[in-house]
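Batch manifest, entry 17 of 40.
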Amino acid sequence: MTCLEPVDTIFVKNVKEKGPAHQAGLCTGDRLVKVNGDSVLGKTYPQVIALIQNSENGLELSIMPKDEDVLQLAYFLSESE
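Output type: structure tokens
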């Protein structure tokens, strides 16, 4: 896979402690679903980053918390078997 292919899922890799994202409740492992109401489904990684960087009037991220993400829970359960 190259970075220019559409991706189905983008996960938060790292959250700086005491930074704005951390204070807003974002956690490592959370799955990004929307940026300012725009779905990330079918977008390339650079397109998603551009949506975030080009946010002029604030940034609203819709996320699926890691602990509530059925896809991740199913994956980790199958890995442990």
